[in-house]
TrEMBL record:
Protein name in UniProt: Major facilitator superfamily (MFS) profile domain-containing protein
UniProt KW Transmembrane helix keyword: yes
Gene3D superfamilies: MFS general substrate transporter like domains
Highest rank taxon of the organism: Eukaryota
Transmembrane segments: 94-118, 130-152, 164-181, 253-273
Keywords associated with the record: Membrane, Transmembrane, Transmembrane helix
Record-linked SUPFAM superfamilies: MFS general substrate transporter
Annotated InterPro entries: MFS_trans_sf
Keyword Membrane: yes
Length: 277
């Protein structure tokens, strides 16, 4: 804990302490007690501090708060410290949870359709196998290009904003691909929309992973990284669901459901717009 000497009453009442958590600056009125323990608030970086009224938590109280005990009371008898602590701790957990939900949901949706695209191209569109392989060769190139674009865009509008934007564009292109096929548009248009759709949907993995790794303790990163294995496993499960939908309603119905779930997968990231830089 830090103890700042009091200068005069005026500065004490108007003092502002600015904290930086995950790139976001938060200001607190220094006339109210707040948490000063840097060891507990791992992701908080104190930028600028005005004089305080020497109301802070003891290490024992902080330990009780961290373990979730209800008998936590700060030294100054003010509940403000408790609220600041809970807000910081809940945010540290909220960010990785939202990112994980978004990734798993998006992976589940992709698994419902990705196994059946070759069948769609070969049976429904009657494409030559060479053309199908050419499509799958161009898609990773588009992903690599758009990954650079998403990185540059994220520096201007934020990582979650860029991810959601690219996901929405990908879902929109998927919907256009379905409609263009049903409208008997040229095969080249349908294939081009598929390549664009695939490139946009899969070019933001580095952004979501960076958000995840930036907001989990270093000793937990291995466990959170294991989510990639969960995503791959969910592909097999969702592919079975996709196969069942195709058997019941047809491949177009499965594609529509995929688009709907991919749109839903962006919602958790929208909650992080004002939290993650």
């Amino acid at each position: 804990n830090e103890d700042f000497s009091e200068t005069n009453e005026n500065k004490k009442r108007k003092g502002i302490c600015a904290w930086k958590q995950g790139g976001e600056v938060e200001e607190h009125d220094m006339s109210k007690p707040f948490v000063l323990d840097n060891t507990l608030l791992e992701n908080c970086e104190r930028l600028e501090t005005g004089p305080s009224d020497n109301s802070y938590m003891s290490e024992e109280s902080l330990s009780d708060a961290e373990s979730g005990r209800e008998n936590f009371i700060d030294e100054g008898g003010n509940f403000w410290n408790t609220l600041c602590l809970l807000r910081c701790c809940s945010r540290k957990r909220l960010i990785p949870i939202c990112v994980a939900i978004a990734d798993i949901t998006s992976g589940f949706a992709s698994g419902m359709s990705i196994r059946f695209f070759p069948i769609f191209f070969l049976d429904d569109m009657s494409l030559d196998p060479v053309i199908v392989q050419l499509i799958y060769m161009l898609s990773p190139l588009g992903m690599a290009l758009l990954s650079k674009v998403s990185l540059l865009l994220s520096r201007r509008i934020g990582r979650c904003q860029a991810t959601v934007l690219f996901k929405l564009i990908g879902a929109f292109c998927f919907l256009l691909m379905i409609l263009s096929y049903k409208s008997h548009c040229h095969t080249a248009l349908v294939c081009s929309l598929f390549i664009i759709r695939t490139s946009f949907m899969n070019s933001t993995q580095s952004l979501t992973k960076s958000v995840l790794m930036d907001n989990v303790p270093s000793n937990e990163r291995g466990r959170w990284s294991a989510l990639e294995a969960v995503n791959k496993m969910s592909w097999s499960g969702s592919a079975a669901i996709g196969g069942w939908l195709i058997g019941e309603e047809g491949i177009m119905f499965n594609f529509y459901i995929t688009v709907a779930i991919q749109l839903m997968a962006t919602i958790p990231l929208m909650f992080l717009f004002r939290v993650v830089p």
